[in-house]
């Protein structure tokens, strides 16, 4: 399994053509206390950069974008009832989706952990 | 380039996240977070830097008449030591800005929105007669201390604070420094706004923050608190396209002014007071968890547009999303079912009366 990061502060744990995705600790910290998460339906397909969800803090709504072109295999329904999980464990329990990558070559455009850490430092 | 208040270094020391607001670099939240800061104001006390707000003084024999020509509040009956909420209206009955006017005995002390500073000062200067002088007090800072513990925190430092009731104001001294303490605020809670020389602000803020009951709070909590309290934000809930009657601010137009008129837009405003406005500002409680923010279309249950949300978000005390918005008057009754069109989907909501959290003022 390899972890990739995007400039929109999302992470992807990739295993073959399947990945688990979420937002990074840095993103969760920047958002502040999350009060609402809206996710798309399982089975929908998206192009890289499409809006695939909304995360709202007390103050503002932020869109989540597809880090790669993908089909949604599973969404984390527990976030609807406990959005604060996004602040507590953004890089583990509070994953957003499990996806199937429809263009694995797009992974080359993403960052590894060292490059991402540099971006946010 | 943004301006910095006298507390800027303190905000940074406290680890605040800063944002540009009305030309000022202001704290939006501290490491405690909006929820904790909000809760502090409801349960204990929160300290806000409100030095970005415009403070001004109006002096001269004709000041009462000059102000009454611009606002629909009764200034003539405002006694020394009393403060009043009012608004500048335009000829069409729209709202140019809202403000607090205090009778400071030998002058009127005004607190105006930072975002409307230039407009308001220009507006007043353009209409003031000879002999009435307007002086902006850029040498002053302002600290708001809000919450049920505000009095017990402030009174040992400024004993006069304990003698004030809601919407009263007095001058006092802190270690020889002249200050003005007013018992009012923008949270729905009991509390004070302390106007003082900028160079004395940091020392007072540190002293107040040293108290176990006080937390520093930023613009994020200020907004969620005022929204739960149903208090209008200029530029969101009120502006030149909204009348005071539509906004539910008729209470701020005293009897004498209703009878005599003589303020800009009186024709429309008095007519709406008598006959009711075409639309009204109401509270909205979404049934689900999705916050309906400013700009969200309000529709009837069967899909006809009847208005728009002007402020909305999550209410930390209510523990649910809350919104304020205008709806056609026939849909403004408490309990009316409406739909909020969030990202293209209809979310059911119910019209409620404002505020969402009852006011806790010391009358």
From TrEMBL, chain A:
A GO cellular-component term linked to this record: glycine cleavage complex
Key words of the record: Lipoyl
GO biological process entries: glycine decarboxylation via glycine cleavage system; protein lipoylation
Protein origin, superkingdom: Bacteria
Domain Lipoyl-binding residue range list: 18-100
Cofactor note text: Binds 1 lipoyl cofactor covalently.
The UniProt record lists the keyword Disulfide bond: no
Cofactor(s) needed by this chain: (R)-lipoate
Pfam families, per the entry: GCV_H
Signal peptide, first to last residue: none
Subunit structure: The glycine cleavage system is composed of four proteins: P, T, L and H.
Family in the record: Belongs to the GcvH family.
Protein name, UniProt field: Glycine cleavage system H protein
Species of provenance: Halovulum marinum
Upper classification of the organism: Bacteria, Pseudomonadati, Pseudomonadota, Alphaproteobacteria, Rhodobacterales
Gene: gcvH
Automatic annotation (TrEMBL), chain B:
Keyword Kinase: no
Keywords: Aminotransferase, Methyltransferase, Transferase, Transit peptide
Protein name as catalogued: aminomethyltransferase
Catalytic activity from the UniProt record: N(6)-[(R)-S(8)-aminomethyldihydrolipoyl]-L-lysyl-[protein] + (6S)-5,6,7,8-tetrahydrofolate = N(6)-[(R)-dihydrolipoyl]-L-lysyl-[protein] + (6R)-5,10-methylene-5,6,7,8-tetrahydrofolate + NH4(+)
E.C. number(s) listed in UniProt: 2.1.2.10
Record-stated family: Belongs to the GcvT family.
Alphabetical list of Pfam families matching this protein: GCV_T, GCV_T_C
Aminomethyltransferase C-terminal domain sequence ranges: 279-357
Binding, substrate: 193
GO cellular component terms, A-Z: glycine cleavage complex
Top enzyme class: transferase
Domain GCVT N-terminal residues, every copy: 7-256
NCBIfam families given in the database record: gcvT (TIGR00528), PRK00389.1 (NF001567), PRK13579.1 (NF010093)
Keyword DNA-binding: no
Any one GO MF annotation of this record: aminomethyltransferase activity
A biological-process GO annotation: glycine catabolic process
Gene: gcvT
InterPro entries the record matches: GcvT, GcvT/YgfZ/DmdA, GcvT/YgfZ_C, GcvT_C, GCVT_N, TrmE/GcvT-like
């Amino acid at each position: 399994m390899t972890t990739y990061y995007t400039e929109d502060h999302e992470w992807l744990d990739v295993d073959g053509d399947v990945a688990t995705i979420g937002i990074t600790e840095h993103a969760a910290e920047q958002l502040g206390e999350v009060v609402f998460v809206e996710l798309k339906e399982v089975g929908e397909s998206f192009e890289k950069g499409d809006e695939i969800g909304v995360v709202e803090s007390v103050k503002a709504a932020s869109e989540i974008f597809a880090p790669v072109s993908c089909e949604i295999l599973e969404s984390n329904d527990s976030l609807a009832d406990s959005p604060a999980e996004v602040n507590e464990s953004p890089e583990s329990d509070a994953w957003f989706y499990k996806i199937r990558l429809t263009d694995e070559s797009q992974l080359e455009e993403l960052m590894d952990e060292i490059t991402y850490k540099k971006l946010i430092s | 380039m943004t301006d910095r208040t006298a507390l800027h270094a303190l905000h940074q020391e406290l680890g605040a996240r800063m944002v540009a607001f009305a030309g000022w670099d202001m704290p939006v939240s501290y490491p405690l977070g909006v929820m904790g800061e909000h809760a502090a104001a409801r349960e204990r006390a929160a300290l806000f830097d409100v030095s970005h707000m415009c403070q001004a003084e109006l002096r001269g024999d004709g000041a009462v008449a000059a102000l009454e020509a611009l606002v629909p509040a009764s200034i003539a009956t405002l006694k020394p030591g009393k403060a009043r909420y009012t608004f500048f209206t335009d000829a069409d009955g729209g709202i140019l800005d809202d403000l607090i006017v205090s009778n400071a005995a030998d002058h009127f002390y005004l607190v105006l929105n930072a975002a409307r500073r230039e407009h308001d000062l220009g507006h007043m200067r353009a209409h003031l007669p000879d002999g009435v002088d307007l002086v902006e007090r850029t040498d002053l800072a302002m600290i708001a201390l809000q919450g049920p513990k505000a009095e017990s925190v402030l009174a040992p430092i400024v004993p006069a604070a304990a003698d004030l009731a809601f919407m009263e104001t007095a001058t006092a001294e802190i270690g020889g420094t002249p200050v003005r303490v007013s018992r009012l605020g923008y949270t729905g809670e009991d509390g004070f706004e302390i106007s003082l020389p900028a160079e004395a602000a940091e020392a007072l803020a540190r002293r107040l923050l040293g108290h176990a009951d006080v937390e520093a709070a930023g613009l994020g909590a200020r907004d969620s608190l005022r929204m739960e309290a149903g208090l209008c934000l200029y530029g969101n809930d009120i502006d030149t396209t909204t009348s005071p009657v539509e906004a539910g601010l008729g209470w701020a137009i005293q009897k004498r002014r209703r009878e005599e008129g003589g303020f800009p837009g009186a024709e429309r405003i008095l007519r709406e007071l008598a006959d009711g406005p075409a639309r009204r500002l109401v509270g909205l409680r979404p049934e689900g968890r999705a916050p309906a923010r400013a700009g969200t279309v309000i529709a009837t249950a069967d899909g006809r547009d009847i208005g728009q949300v002007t402020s909305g978000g999550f209410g930390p005390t209510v523990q649910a999303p809350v919104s304020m918005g205008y709806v056609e008057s026939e849909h403004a009754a408490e309990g009316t079912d409406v739909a909020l069109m969030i990202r293209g989907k209809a979310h059911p909501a119910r019209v409620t009366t404002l505020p969402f959290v009852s006011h806790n003022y010391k009358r």
